[in-house]
Write a structure and sequence with these properties.
Blueprint: H1 2-32, H2 45-58, E1 65-73, H3 77-82, E2 92-99, E3 104-111, E4 116-122, H4 132-143, H5 146-154, E5 163-169, H6 175-180, E6 184-191, E7 206-211, E8 216-222, H7 237-240, E9 261-263, E10 266-269, E11 272-279, E12 283-293, E13 296-312, E14 324-325, E15 351-358, E16 364-386, E17 391-408, E18 411-420, E19 425-433, E20 437-439, E21 452-456, E22 459-462, E23 464-474, E24 481-490, E25 503-509, E26 527-532, E27 544-549, H8 562-566, E28 574-578, H9 600-603, E29 615-625, E30 635-647
Antiparallel strand pairs: 1-2, 2-3, 3-4, 5-6, 6-7, 7-8, 9-10, 10-11, 11-12, 12-13, 13-14, 13-23, 15-16, 16-17, 17-18, 18-19, 19-30, 20-22, 21-22, 23-29, 24-25, 24-26, 26-27, 27-30, 28-29
């Protein structure tokens, strides 16, 4: 009896000790993982690990399984808007899982608090973005192909390591490729030689398509020998020789400190308040953008970010016609963000911010300095000189810039969100990098090839376009919004316009999704207003924000072109949809090898009402690039953008009372 009692007491003590140790462990883990302060906080490294461990534990993944995308599963919008500090909230991770051998794609969400899978779906007939490991797979497969080796030897290249092989998403598919459904990529070739800038020496006319499921070359094209440029296009200072004299030193100082404040991922500056996340696919995304008007913090945007890009090339040659990079959805633009440097991409008064991403193995890693934030002077904010009294009132214009840069193979992009003291928000994209050159036998401009222009001897620049679509979840003074189109017109000379000088403005409500598919029109100074459906300003009108287009272009591929079907979002400048949380990407969730009509054309198919609704504006802007010698070897920055400007949102110039 005593022996049993001792055993019982020993068991009780063991249970108590184990319980205490488990409490201590939980306490330690909690201490190691700082509390998440807000529902729109990016996933931490610990959360990424947890999400992947849960998936691997509950699902029988193979050793070849990859994670093309791991990011925050954004919580319900209503929950976020009602959130107050200290209140519990939903915390989930969203994962895309790809089984390469099986060629199957899955989407999962994991509850990070309960550590359970809350959703697991197989997504049929799609291909996720190109994976980092597939670049090397494609290189090895191509180099091992006898047809490719023979093509190189025919061009006098016997050292295959001198060939740089670039892996591109498949782009436009032929019927056989569509029917097969395999995961493929295509390879572009450049000759390195003694020059590190291999983009100056394309190996033209050789195109291998790689089946990434079977690791074989599924098709091969050799169009014949084209001379390879022998010119050294390296652009390091030593290679360039005689240098231009630099301008005198310009110092940017803020001896009293920064005007902006950063608290976690929340930024405040001159009345503005917003949150940001570095999204692995979209890059820099802003949330809950508000402006403090007196004592009121007034909402303008709930979520805003780059939704998709497409870069269609204009040469019908089969070695070029497939090229139309969807840089956001096919390559995960956010993961390609560069570490920036103070004094280079970001001025010396700026601050660099880090981000945490996950690689394709599901392992978290930190990327330093991928977001930059800084203030800059931009000339005059407002001014009036009064001749009668010689009174001169002027305020300098200060801006806050939030920026990121990304290199996608040869091209470099900067995405800049610019906040103004007058209550406006500007998006400015910087385009730079290296023109994707085409090899040619021509040594001088002959104008016999209308598909582009000569850049240099044996180097041709193909006509192409760059389109960017921004998704703007507008919440102007609340979620209930409507949209109006404003056109400026002339009146014919007559009774109401006797001397012909009349200029009138006409506002047209855009009441349904299909009616709101519109295009920029400089003949009518066309702009679009997103208005509050519930509030009135001091003049009795609806407060609004105006989308003001900058320079733009139209998509030149003709009706019936496959790229128009694939990139429907780029065929019009302005789209509006009723808010749906799952509609995030203008080109669809999986643009890599996608079917026609995905994204915005599908989103508007049900033609929902836009009157007094929670609405999302999608704006597409683009440039048409006819290359020129001055773009070579590295293109000077070309800027492209648009502005969201208040119209009746304030009762006066919101910066009129800015202190000197």
């Amino acid at each position: 009896m005593i022996k049993r009692l001792r055993l019982f007491l020993s068991l009780i003590i063991t249970i108590i000790v184990c319980f205490a140790l488990s409490l201590k462990f939980i306490e330690t883990v909690t201490a190691q993982q700082p509390a998440i302060p807000h529902p729109l906080t990016a996933l931490t490294a610990a959360e990424i690990k947890t999400a992947v461990e849960v998936i691997r534990k509950e699902k029988p993944l193979t050793d070849m399984a990859a994670f093309p995308l791991i990011t925050l599963a954004e919580p319900d919008k209503t929950e976020v808007l009602k959130f107050t500090p200290g209140q519990p909230f939903t915390r989930q991770a969203f994962l895309v899982v790809y089984e390469r051998v099986q060629n199957k794609t899955y989407e999962a969400t994991v509850d990070l608090k309960t550590q359970k899978i809350t959703s697991w779906q197989k997504i049929p007939n799609v291909q996720p973005s190109i994976l980092a490991s597939e670049y090397e797979i494609a290189r090895q497969v191509v180099k091992s192909d006898p047809r490719w080796q023979a093509a190189m030897k025919k061009r006098g290249i016997t050292d295959f390591n001198q060939v740089q092989i670039s892996c591109w998403a498949a782009g436009i598919l032929n019927e056989a490729e569509t029917a097969a459904g395999s995961r493929i990529c295509r390879t572009l070739l450049f000759y390195r030689g003694d020059n590190w800038n291999y983009y100056g020496s394309p190996i033209e006319g050789v195109l291998a398509t790689v089946n990434l499921n079977t690791n074989t070359v599924s098709s091969f094209i050799d169009q014949g020998i084209v001379p390879i440029s022998q010119t050294n296009w390296n652009y390091d200072l030593q290679s360039l020789g005689k240098l231009l004299s630099p301008p005198k030193l310009l110092k940017i100082l803020q001896p009293q400190g920064k005007t902006f404040q950063i608290k976690g991922n929340e930024i405040t500056w001159q009345g503005w308040k917003f949150r940001y996340i570095m999204h692995p696919r979209s890059g820099l995304v802003l949330y809950q953008v508000t402006y403090k008007d007196g004592e009121n913090q007034r909402p303008v945007l709930y979520r805003a970010g780059l939704s998709e890009m497409v870069v269609p090339y204009g040469d019908p040659n089969p070695a070029w016609s497939f090229r139309n990079a969807f840089d956001v959805g096919e390559y995960n633009l956010g993961l390609l963000a560069n570490t920036m440097e103070i004094g280079k991409e970001v001025p010396e008064n700026g601050v660099l911010l880090d981000a945490v991403f996950a690689n394709e193995e599901g392992e978290p890693y930190a990327m330093p300095g991928v977001v930059g934030i800084y203030e800059r002077d931009r000339g005059i904010l407002w001014k009036h000189y009064e001749y009668n009294t010689q009174r001169n009132d002027v305020r300098r214009n200060r801006e806050l810039v939030l920026t990121m840069t990304a290199a996608i193979d040869n091209y470099d992009y900067a995405i800049n969100w610019i906040f103004h003291q007058d209550g406006s928000i500007e998006v400015e994209n910087d385009l730079s990098g290296i023109v994707l050159a085409q090899g040619t036998a021509a040594e001088a401009e002959k104008f016999d090839n209308a598909y582009g222009r000569m850049l240099a001897k044996n180097t041709f620049g193909v006509n192409h376009q760059h389109f960017f679509n921004y998704r703007l979840d507008m919440d102007v003074d609340g979620q209930a919004n409507s949209v109006m189109e404003m056109n400026v017109n002339s009146l014919p000379i007559g009774k109401n316009n006797p001397v012909g000088n009349a200029i009138i403005v006409e506002d047209t409500p855009l009441t349904t999704e299909k009616a709101a598919v519109r295009d920029a029109d400089i003949k009518h100074s066309r702009e679009w207003m997103i208005t509050s459906a519930e509030k009135k300003n001091t003049l009795g009108a609806a407060p609004a924000y105006m989308l003001m287009p900058g320079s733009n272009t139209v998509m030149f591929p003709v009706e019936g072109a496959k790229i128009r079907q694939k990139a429907g979002f780029a065929t019009h400048h302005f789209w509006v949809t009723k808010y749906q949380p799952q509609e995030l990407y203008a080109g669809g969730d999986y643009p890599n090898q996608t079917a026609p009509g995905e994204g915005l054309p599908k989103y508007i198919a049900n033609n929902e009402s836009l009157t007094g609704e929670d609405i999302v504006v999608w704006y597409t802007m683009g440039i048409t690039h006819v290359p020129k010698p001055e773009d070579w070897p590295v293109m000077p920055v070309h800027k492209l953008g648009f502005k969201l400007s208040p119209r009746g949102f304030f009762s006066r110039n919101p910066a009129i009372n800015l202190a000197e």
